Amino acid sequence: MALNGSTTNQALLDAQLELWQNTFGYIKSMALKSALDLRIADAIHHHGGSGATLPQIVTRIMIPSSKIPHLRRLMRVLVATGVFAAQHPPPAAGSSGDDEDEPMLYTLTPVSRLLVGSQNLAPITTMNLHPAFISPFFELGSWFQHEEAPESCELFKHAHGQTCWGQADRDATFNALINDGMVSDSNFLMDIAISQCAGAFQGITSLVDVGGGLGASAQAIAKAFPGVKCSVLDLDHVVANAPAGDTGVQYIAGDMFEKIPPADAMFLKWILHDWDDEECIRILNNCRKAIPPREEGGKVIIIDMAIGVEPSDLRHKEMQAVFDIFVMVINGKERNEKEWKKIFFKAGFSDYKITPVLGVRSIIEVYP
After folding, report:
1. Which parts of the sequence belong to the O-methyltransferase C-terminal domain (predicted)?
2. What pTM does this model have?
């Protein structure tokens, strides 16, 4: 009986721990946000591969001395969650190495290395943790209880009184937050995508990056495939901030819901998951009208999630499920293969191929 009781108690405590892991998950996100705001990864990176002590970090991030004990506690969370690593420095010559008061050395991990350097993911991580995207989730429960017309069903609009894209149109700072985030993701992902699936971009002579923002993806494609004429289509206020100089890319102001300029291939990276099925069909239908037949090289190249497509371990499945809720804030949707197939065929396409080589995302080629 004692053994059974002990087993039952342990199961209850394990369940409570799992409940707490979910309850306090936001602490991990806010600790990461604080690290970004304080540029802690940059402070550690400044000291090279040997790492940095807490006093060395403090000299870079410039916080009041009264906050140093609290910073030590923040670093403990960031180490426990794998953002940073910590170790005692090697003992000095003649030292026993038993000095527990020796300051810890904090070093970068594979996760935090993504937050430093010229092509880092800090901007998109900052975007994803911005209050504008987080605060609507405080109202998620009440949002579910309200009947709303489809055009008014966006959780972002429910919280802020306007759509995400409407706010980007009116608020230059918010617009820059989104554009900089997308550029950082493209700078990170496109070299991998081109390396892993170069065949998707071969055999075409022109490409339009639909909703391509500041053109980071198109620039990467143009650099890898000099024979492909690359253009970027986006709204006026986005194109107005396009980089100056010779980028190798043409920028075109326009609306993908109205008309898309012709090319051999259309490219949509992280675009369709922002829209519901009917809107995706409109975008894809305009893409189909702008490309030649399949036998002449016409295709649409999509980078997005395809839920459940192999390989898919537990971490992939969890992140795909979480991301589906994240894009729900702007009335978006992550799709499984059946859902993708449905909108492809409704938009008049005849075939598709999914290549799951980008972590939780895939390259999807769609043919007229």
Report:
1. 138-350
2. 0.89
